[in-house]
């Protein structure tokens, strides 16, 4: 069972524009903004508008439209950033052992340099 969604988490506040972020994309299903502590020359976070704690929660509980809309948004963000065909990496920390810090699903998009076999 996934823990209940905390609508006071920092990304919920970013979604509601209660705290600022540098948005690079938004549509019906998702928004994207620059990570405040970039780990690569390009480091963008893409989040669904819906209240999902994690990849686990989202994949189990989101509607097919939400899932399709979110995945399409992730691809669009990367394409709009000019990363195709150069390349990019997606990462979704899920749960404690992965080090997930913010309890609203976010996909990290890393790019802008050769990334190596793993991002340390
Ligand atoms: P996680 O460790 O949960 O996968 O990633 C959380 C990410 O959110 C980190 O890379 C961190 O730098 C980023 N982050 C945390 N707080 C904020 C914030 O207030 N604004 C932005 N833009 N990014 C944040």
From TrEMBL:
InterPro entries from the UniProt entry = Histidine_triad_CS, Histidine_triad_HIT, HIT-like, HIT-like_sf
In terms of superkingdom, the source organism counts as Bacteria
Coiled coil where? Answer: none
- The record places domain HIT at 10-120
PROSITE patterns found in the cross-reference section? HIT_1, HIT_2
One Pfam family this chain carries?
Answer: HIT
SUPFAM superfamilies, A to Z: HIT-like
Which ranges belong to the motif Histidine triad motif?
A: 104-108
Name the record gives this protein = Histidine triad nucleotide-binding protein
């Amino acid at each position: 069972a996934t823990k209940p969604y905390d609508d006071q988490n920092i990304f919920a506040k970013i979604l509601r524009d209660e705290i600022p972020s540098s948005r690079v994309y938004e549509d019906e299903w998702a928004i994207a903004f620059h990570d405040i502590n970039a780990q690569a020359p390009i480091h963008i976070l893409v989040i669904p508008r819906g209240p999902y704690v994690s990849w686990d929660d989202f994949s189990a509980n989101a509607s097919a439209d939400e899932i399709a809309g979110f995945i399409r948004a992730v691809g669009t963000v990367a394409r709009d950033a000019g990363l195709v065909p150069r390349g990019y990496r997606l990462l979704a920390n899920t749960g404690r052992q992965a080090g997930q810090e913010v309890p609203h699903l976010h996909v990290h998009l890393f790019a802008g340099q050769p990334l190596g076999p793993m991002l340390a």
